User: What shape does this take?
Amino acid sequence: MKISIITCTFNRKEKLLRNIKSVLDQNFNNLEQFIIDDGSTDNTINEVEKLNIDFLKIIPLKKNLGQPEALFNSNVFNLISGEIYFLLDSDDLLLPGALRKIKEDA
Assistant: This one.
């Protein structure tokens, strides 16, 4: 069962990098994480691209629209391929084993 994570961000590069690390530390192979960059000016996209992580998919937006508009304008809900999907804010972290527990509960 594939899990899709959707994360919107705006100028939260350091928090986003911790967020991505918490997803990477899940040791869960069947996942994708969409990073919707809502017009950040802090070099967020370059820092995420440097990670070179296969499950990350970056959607850059040209200007800050706010999370609801970013979700709509990114077309992300037509791109996800997971049977389970959820929003994980850029300043949130997953606890160890969270994805395994979500899959078991589903």
In short: The longest helix spans residues 13-24.
